[in-house]
Amino acid sequence: MTRILIAEDEERISAFVAKGLEAAGYQTLIVEDGAEALDTALAGEVDLVLLDVGLPTMDGFEVLRSLRGQGSSIPVIMLTARTSTRDTVDGLDAGANDYVAKPFKFDELLARVRSRLREPVSLGSITIAHGDVSLDVLTRRAAIGAREIDLSAREFALAEEFLRHAGQVLSREQLLSRVWGLDFDPGSNVVDVYVRYLRAKFGAARIATVRGAGYRWQ
């Protein structure tokens, strides 16, 4: 049975989430401390982590960076009362698979849990290439020819989305949903910011702006 780690120090919230998940057929494990959450996730006995940002000992961002730094690809959904775009970007860029702001409706959280558990886990080296640009999905390495390019987790995810759909126009709404797991916010410029980052690293000519429609990897 699928087991979900709930790393949350507010007992009212963790009990509410655990009750709902167990009713949906999942096993749950609750921890209230960041260091314990990290150890539990690394032990390999859970299938997904619901990770609160405001944990004692280590906050959620620290836990997530340590997880990814030690090679763990376990799905992580961040839970937080912080609602600024900067906090959202920080969490996702540290390697979160999704981000849910408190207060949330349980049905929405459950839908995101199911979605992340359906995503395939790479078991071998998978390379996506277009022209002289290549991405190794397993090792998270990017290169132009023989030259390796240093990308953050979110830059890599955006580049992967572009290369998987090279030549197609992708709207900001599509990119925000697929790469950041967020509903479209007309006031957010996070997609444009990360496109600038990729242009600086891969060359501006590789990503074309299609006025009124979005972006296209050339």
Comma- or semicolon-separated keywords:
218 residues; alpha/beta; Rossmann fold; Arc Repressor Mutant, subunit A; 2 domains; five-stranded parallel β-sheet; four-stranded antiparallel β-sheet; 8 helices; 12 strands
Q: Would you mind describing this structure in some detail?
A:
The protein has 218 residues and is α/β, with parallel strands linked by helices. It folds into 2 domains: 3-118, Rossmann fold; 127-217, Arc Repressor Mutant, subunit A (Orthogonal Bundle), CATH 1.10.10. Helices cover 40% and strands 22% of the residues. The protein contains 8 helices and 12 strands. It has helices spanning 11-23, 34-42, 60-69, 85-93, 106-118, 153-164, 172-180, 190-202, and strands at 3-7, 27-31, 48-52, 76-80, 98-101, 127-130, 133-136, 141-144, 147-149, 169-170, 207-210, 214-217. The chain has a 5-stranded parallel sheet with strand order 2-1-3-4-5, with helices on both faces. Strands 6-7-8-9 form a 4-stranded antiparallel sheet, with helices on one face. The chain has a 3-stranded antiparallel sheet with strand order 10-12-11. Helix 6 (153-164) packs across helix 8. The longest helix is centred in the N-terminal third of the chain and has 13 residues, at 11-23. The protein is globular.
Question: What's the arrangement of secondary structure elements?
Answer:
Elements: E1 3-7, H1 11-23, E2 27-31, H2 34-42, E3 48-52, H3 60-69, E4 76-80, H4 85-93, E5 98-101, H5 106-118, E6 127-130, E7 133-136, E8 141-144, E9 147-149, H6 153-164, E10 169-170, H7 172-180, H8 190-202, E11 207-210, E12 214-217
Parallel strand pairs: 1-2, 1-3, 3-4, 4-5
Antiparallel strand pairs: 6-7, 7-8, 8-9, 10-12, 11-12
Helix pairs in contact: 2-3, 6-7, 6-8
